[in-house]
Specification:
The complex is a heterodimer of chains A (517) and B (303). In chain A, strand 21 and strand 22 form a beta hairpin. With 517 residues, chain A is of the alpha+beta class. Chain A has three domains: 139 residues, Periplasmic binding protein-like II (D-Maltodextrin-Binding Protein, domain 2, 3-Layer(aba) Sandwich); 111 residues, Dipeptide-binding Protein, Domain 1 (Dipeptide-binding Protein, domain 1); 208 residues, Roll (Dipeptide-binding Protein, domain 3). About 1% of the residues of chain A have low confidence. Chain A has 13 helices and 23 strands. Chain A has a seven-stranded mixed beta sheet with strand order 8-9-10-1-11-19-12, with helices on both faces. A six-stranded mixed beta sheet of chain A has the order 14-18-13-17-15-16, with helices on both faces. The two termini of chain A are 41 Å apart. The relative contact order of chain B is 0.15. With 303 residues, chain B is mostly helical. In chain B, helix 3 crosses helix 5. Chain B is built from twelve helices and no strands. The chains are: A alpha+beta (517), B mainly alpha (303). At the A-B interface, helix 5, helix 7, helix 9 and strand 16 of A face loops of B.
């Protein structure tokens, strides 16, 4: 016995040494995950979610046919595969067969049809109506196959079903809708189930024990707390009140990253929305393309985005995620003060002019950007008067056309199918941002051709033509993006940030997160 | 008793007695003695005059523009080139502080003027006419007084849209009731005095009585209140700007500077230090002047 003691002891020691390093690698189940969000939702009806936070929150509870991957590219969600026919006029989606709603019922193609019908119904008031206006009819071929018949060929149709940058286009169970048509308890298929929403305070979800991906999620509960001020959020994270937060100021995070506080992990990968200027093209001065071009030549995009986002900012002339394969190589406008002044003179403003620039106070990024724009355009002779109000007021002004020039952010897309057409064609869902007055038939045609181009190379060429026109006509001027840094406690494991900060993506997101404490 | 009367009267009457030149000098030096022994007034006065000076001579004592951005010089700490460092846009902090004094004085002057004139009219009419007019006017004043000043100011500015004009007017309107009350109580105190009765008896119009007889005795409390309200106006303007509902950019308001510094506190704490100290000193100065003046002018607190 004594002779065996030592080897057994040695073996025991070896096992004890190696075993812990194996077991702490395995995700632990359980725990409550508290995140801090900048803005609040408007409601808990996923078909009426308007803002990015709605998209993020609902993505925990609902999924859609096509889902945004981590880098923004489209990936299979509730639809396993899809194919086009008739040049893109008909799309057939094959749905997963193993999905159940949170109320236990099976997810079927009839549910999908019901969802789109509800979104297209004017009474619902869904912001997705414009996106799906291209749908002519839907046909359920069998419980897991659905066919969409479109009014015109659209090669990018599947890309309209999701968003790389903001709100998803979620599927909810018909039972979610109350008798009066409202939704107060959305039933989805996602990794978490809706628990409650306390307006201006928090949004709570709990684990979906029957999620279609086995063994996921790990967390028991997620609470999304609404904390508008990013300095407060960062402080709350450092004190341990929050486990994760995003949309922090790049300057503080950059500074912090040089000397990271204990127990906090910072990440600069997530990007913001693309800042952009938009003009009322229906009245002077911006009904004259030369005045719009004067602004484009008068600003210095790099300076603007750098002021807001720091060194890692990127000026852009297309609001697409870096990973997008649809980015085209169109040279951007370089700052030229002399040319800007000349354009103004030609347009009839040799002494310069006063311009009111509207924006929203809720977003410090916009407030910083407008000040830089104001300063830069002074040199050109344009005297900018800043008109800043809260977000709903600003949006209201835009909707009524009661603005001259505005500054806001556009969540980045992967596929431009819904990026230019809704903004720069008179019937587009977002045409109100040019007061519905911008109309260039050449641009409209390029976009239509892009929609119908089945061969990728052709499609890219048409987009290139479109972007060239947009840069030249300048109904909007895209400014650029920068990091919207995130921070998390070091005990938060396996949280891989999405390029736009979305909470759930097929192979990354909160359903994979576990807490090591 | 006689001493008190003469000291007080010496400040009140602005016309020297025709017979006593020496008397005037004696009264003047007594006044000066009172002023110079009043430490609050002296120190506060120095601060106020200092800010008045820098506000007036702003372009002469600064070399940068308060709004020009210089992105290569962002977040600079105090140095020879930038005495107080720079902000997130590379603007020179010292220059913005100096021009901020202008902003504060403009707001303060307009606000106090509006408060003073409005309060004067309401208070004088209410006090002198009395009766229903008094009731109505004072209830209006009470209604305004029911609001916390800051919230009322925010509401007024929000309804008119923020600008230098609307901020000054809003703050002025907020403080009209306080001036009105002081005016009214002064008028009431004087109204029943014999010399007023005598003036009425010989047929002088109410307006003339107010102007020539009652008026002068209401000046001192109004002046004291004006200096206090000036300080409050500066604070409210700074608070409004700090909350983002004050002067729109690129106005160099001390409050705005403080607000902007919040986001960058970890990057450059200097951005917060200078506007904060400046606001504190300016407000302290005005409050001290107010206290000092009240001590000086109030006959009951003669020491």
């Amino acid at each position: 016995m004594k002779k065996l003691a030592t080897p057994i002891l040695a073996l025991a020691v070896v096992i004890l040494i190696t075993f812990p390093s194996v077991s702490t690698g395995a995700p632990k189940y359980g725990g409550t995950f508290i995140t801090g969000e900048a803005a609040d939702l408007n409601n808990v009806d996923p078909h009426r979610g308007v803002t990015k936070i709605s998209g993020k929150a609902f993505s925990l509870v609902c999924e859609n046919l096509v889902i945004s991957e981590r880098d923004g590219a489209p990936g299979p969600g509730l639809a396993e595969s899809w194919e086009l026919s008739e040049g893109g006029k008909v799309w057939t989606f094959h749905l997963r067969q193993d999905v159940k709603w949170h109320n236990g019922k099976d997810f079927t193609a009839d549910d999908v049809k019901w969802n789109f019908e509800r979104m297209l119904d004017p009474k619902t008031g869904s912001p997705w109506r414009g996106r799906f206006a291209v749908i002519e009819s839907m046909q359920v071929l069998d419980p897991h196959t659905i066919k969409f018949q479109l009014k015109n060929p659209s090669v990018g149709f599947p890309a309209t079903m999701y968003s790389a940058g903001s709100a998803q286009v979620p599927m909810v169970a018909p039972e979610s809708v109350n008798a009066d048509g409202t939704v107060t308890h959305p039933i989805g298929t996602g990794p978490f189930e809706f628990v409650e929403w306390k307006p201006k305070e928090y949004f709570k979800v709990k684990k979906n024990k029957n999620y279609r991906v086995k063994d996921l999620p790990y967390l028991d509960e997620i609470i999304v707390k609404i904390i508008p001020d990013e300095t407060v959020r960062l402080a709350a994270l450092q004190s341990g009140e929050l486990d994760y937060t995003d949309n922090l100021g790049s300057y503080q995070v950059e500074k912090m990253a040089k000397n990271p506080p204990k127990g906090v992990v910072l990440n600069m990968e997530t990007l913001s929305s693309t800042l952009f200027l938009h003009f009322n093209a229906g009245q002077p001065p911006f009904n004259d393309v030369r005045v719009r071009q004067a602004v484009a030549y008068g600003i210095n995009k790099k300076e603007i985005v750098e002021s807001v986002y720091g060194e890692r900012s990127m000026p852009q002339n297309q609001p697409l995620v870096p990973a997008s394969t649809w980015k085209v190589d169109v040279p951007d406008v370089e700052r030229d003060v002399a040319k800007a002044k000349l354009l103004l003179k030609e347009a009839g403003y040799p002494q310069g002019l006063d311009v009111t620039l509207s924006t929203a106070t809720d977003y410090w990024q916009y407030m910083v950007a407008v000040q830089v724009v104001q300063e830069q355009l002074k040199e050109v002779g344009i005297n900018i008067i800043i008109d800043a109000s809260d977000w709903p007021t600003y949006v209201g002004k835009c909707l009524k056309g009661a603005f001259v020039m505005g500054l806001a952010g556009w969540p980045m897309d992967y596929d431009p199918v819904f990026t230019y057409a809704p903004c720069f064609t008179p019937q587009g869902a977002y045409a109100f941002l040019t007061a519905k007055a911008y109309d260039n038939p050449e641009l409209t045609e390029s976009l239509q051709q892009a929609d119908a181009a089945v061969i990728a190379a052709d499609r890219k060429k048409f987009f290139a033509d479109a972007v060239k026109i947009i840069v030249n006509d300048a109904p909007w001027v895209y400014l650029g993006v920068g990091p919207a840094p995130t921070a998390q406690g070091s005990y938060v494991k396996d949280l891989q940030p999405h390029i736009s900060g979305l909470y759930v993506a097929p192979k990354s997101g909160f359903q994979y997160v576990w807490l090591d404490k | 008793m006689t001493q008190i009367n003469s000291a007080y009267a010496g400040f009140q009457e602005n016309q020297p007695r025709a017979d006593e030149d020496g008397g005037k000098v004696k009264r003047g030096s007594l006044l000066w003695a009172r002023i110079s022994s009043n430490k609050m007034l002296i120190i506060g006065g120095i601060v106020v005059i200092f800010f008045l000076f820098i506000a007036f001579f702003a372009p002469l004592i600064t070399q940068y523009s308060p709004t020009k951005m210089d992105f290569r010089a962002k977040f600079a700490p105090p140095s020879a080139e930038h005495l107080m460092g720079t902000d997130h846009f590379g603007r020179d902090t010292y220059t913005r502080i100096v021009y901020g004094a202008r902003v504060s004085f403009q707001v303060g002057l307009v606000a106090v003027s509006i408060g003073l004139i409005g309060g004067l009219i309401f208070g004088a009419v209410a006090g002198y006419v009395g009766g229903i007019a008094d009731d109505i006017l004072m209830r209006m004043m009470d209604a305004l007084l029911a609001f916390p000043p800051l919230l009322l100011a925010i509401g007024l500015v929000a309804s008119m849209g923020p600008s230098l004009k609307t901020v000054s007017i809003s703050i002025g309107v907020v403080y009209i009731p306080r001036f009105a009350r002081v005016m009214r109580s002064s008028v009431l105190a004087e109204k029943e005095k014999e010399y007023v009765e005598a003036a009425r008896a010989i047929g002088q119009s109410g307006f003339k009585i107010l102007m020539k007889h009652i008026g002068p005795s209401t000046i001192s409390p109004m002046i004291v209140l004006a200096t206090i309200i000036f300080a409050l106006a500066i604070i409210i303007e700074a608070t409004l700007s700090f909350l983002g509902v004050g002067l729109p950019p690129p106005a160099p308001s001390w409050g705005t500077m403080l607000d902007e510094s919040r986001r960058y506190l970890s990057v450059s704490a200097w951005m917060a230090v200078f506007p904060g100290i400046t606001i504190s000193i300016a407000v302290l100065g005005f409050n001290m002047v107010g206290d000092g003046l009240r001590d000086l002018l109030d006959p009951r607190s003669y020491n």
